[in-house]
Amino acid sequence: MDLKLIFIAFIGLFYCCNSQKEGNECINKNAKHCGECIQAGAKCGWCTDPDFLKQGETVSSRCDELQSLIKRGCNETLIENPLGKRKILKNKPVTDRSKTTGELKPEDITQVQPQKVSLTLRSGEPQSFELKFKRAEDYPIDLYYLMDLSFSMKDDLENVKNLGTSLMNEMSKITSDFKIGFGSFVEKTVMPYISTTPAKLLNPCTGDQNCTSPFSYKNVLPLTNNGATFNRLVGEQQISGNLDSPEGGFDAIMQVAVCGEQIGWRNVTRLLVFSTDAGFHFAGDGKLGGIVLPNDGKCHLENNIYTMSHYYDYPSIAHLVQKLSDNNIQTIFAVTEEFQPVYQELKNLIPKSAVGTLSANSSNVINLIIDAYNALSSEVILENTKVSNNVTIEYTSRCKNGVINKGENGRKCSNISIGDEVHFNISITSKGCPNNTSPEIIKIKPLGFTEEVEIILHFICECDCHSEAVNNSQVCSSGNGTYECGACRCKEGRVGRECECSSNEVSTEDMDRTCRKDNGTDICSNNGECVCGTCECKARENPEERYSGQFCECDNFNCDRSGNKLCGGHGRCECRKCICDPMWNGTACDCSLDESTCLASNKQICNGRGRCECGICKCDDPKFQGPKCETCPTCPSACAEHKDCVECRMFHTGVKKDVCEEECNYFTMRKVDTKDKFPQPTDKSYPLTHCKEKDANDCWIYYVYTVTNSSEKVVYVLDKPDCPKGPDLIPIVAGVVAGIVLIGLALLLIWKLLMIIHDRREFAKFEKEKMNAKWDTQENPIYKSPINQFQNPNYGRKGAVL
Predict the structure, then answer these.
(1) What angle is formed at CA 354 by the lines to CA 450 and CA 327, rounded to 5 degrees?
(2) Distance of CA 305 to CAs 164, 219, 263, 313, 618, Å?
(3) Given 3.40.50.300, 3.20.20.390, 2.10.25.10, 3.40.30.10, which CATH number is that of 561-592?
(4) What is the mean pLDDT of the segment spanning 303-312?
(5) Of 105-114, 157-166, 215-224, 662-671, which gets the smallest average pLDDT?
(6) Is the pLDDT score of 800 beyond 60?
(7) What's the mean per-residue pLDDT of the chain?
(8) Residue ranges of the alpha helices (H) in 93-226?
(9) Which regions span the lipid bilayer (predicted)?
(10) Architecture of domain 638-718
(11) Smallest Cα–Cα separation from 318: which of 309, 310, 306, 326?
(12) Is the pTM of this model over 0.85?
């Protein structure tokens, strides 16, 4: 059991020490110069005082937490602690339609504020700013309809031919500035995706169906605000055909995304409607047609036709996501119910995209587009460009109805209506300095929007005192280092606090001799290393603990403890001796010189019965006890102790009436004529004792005993004793006799009542038995009839002789 406890204690100590070690990142850094120190953490400072270091302390001891440096004696004005800062460079307010008149150009509408920010980052110190997003009213919209024209979409094409004007009318309810375009796709024009026979290249459909030649992607109509033109050009389109079920839609999406000039994209809301009833080919599928070159993500439209489908493979999903995001395009997948699950999974991989179920003949396409647009525009999601490894960004969103999100959810807000305003707190932190100290630029924007915030990051990699550094300073051993920030920064190959030694001379025997206190001690007391004939004390696992001294013979952790605290928590340990704070004393600083803890309620130290030592009362008389010598278990009460003297002085009675003047003159007596005139605890600042005692005549005497702040004993006595009167015997005897008589009469009455009840019960019982009695003569066993009947034996015989 003991071994188990020892093991647990050891583990606890291990974790305690490690947690402390991890806690002081400044000391753990072991910084050799100021710039390295301030990169260790936001709490770290560097003391530039040339005389700050004590004997045995290394240059890295200048780097510590700010409060620790001040506590160790560094003047606050000599501590280098540069702070980061924030500056808003461009802060155009978000557009408020209620305060503007006339039409606004797209570039005049602002939905994101601010637009440009400069942040100066100190390692470990976050810098934050507020980003405001307001969904603008009547914001322009570009919509490009990309349709699958394989043979299975024949009936859908008929419904899309009138889409232009119908969609223009519906979108006019949302925005007054709407443009629509149209493109179509089928498949790569190589085997095995299409048949390459001459006849099939002219008409890929079977039977008497008249189809156009297969193609990969056509930009039929760049973006326009003329719905009639859309209807006319779409009406001229013909269905084509291919061999396999998946289509080449990814090739078309890539070209729509990167060919902004040919498509006519503006810097407004960009919507891409992708309509199909089949799946899709993606990167790697091109190998079936002998195409191995990966998609280059560039525009290859000639005369509005994609010409490199036979040369480049299909793009990957990740490649599409990147290009759609870079070009701020929000995608709406209008697909049939059969392929809904496939495109739902694709939608999860493409931010700011939506999926709608297309009817068999695309008759619901307008409602699908409107619903998808509302869903996309009601959510804002922030994204940022790639940042260096030493920079982190944290988002906190304050959305509609006071909803606050953090972490990954802090990037977005949902259920945003037109005119709603949401806020994002963006906090950026750097850890250390990048290899390239030039400013870094980060851009943050809402997905699907062209507006963005440009953030310029500057990094604090050196202290302000670095600019005052003296190269080849004479202080640093005649030019063997740079003197900066109160310390020498040695050249390569030089060591020592003042760069006084060559690294080749560090371990010579002559130098080691100067690092011993005497011949009988270890080098640097076995607590450091001898560098250039000077001890440099080693660091402890706990960064708060340090060795110091010329021979590292001192430390700040081996002093006396009290309450499991070093120097009782009321001093500091210097060279294994406690230096106590003011008002504390003792080898472990556990003796308080403050006597307020010994002050009793009567303002006397220990009630005048003892002395105050280390904040604790030591009673002179052992019979007194308590924190302030206030109790005496073996002593009579104050009332009983003074009763005889009060009685003899006030009433001239009692056991001390003959010696009253000699023994009872130790207090001042004051008479009062009523109890109301006794002093009360609220009237005095010293304690009072209210007494009630019996005198020799069996009377009650009332008095109050007190000791004033000037130690005067005063007794307030009621001038008349309270003597009880004798009993009146006649009423008592008469009452007793009357009581006995009444009790006797009551007992007689109760007895009489009980007898009457008993007699009545017996009589009732008799009557009941009488009524139940029956006298029947025929059944009486002793009854004999008085009549005897006899029969003549000869009566009735014939010829009888008389």
Answers:
(1) 25
(2) 22, 6, 12, 17, 104
(3) 2.10.25.10
(4) 92
(5) 157-166
(6) no
(7) 84
(8) 154-160, 163-171, 198-202
(9) 729-751
(10) Irregular (4.10)
(11) 326
(12) no
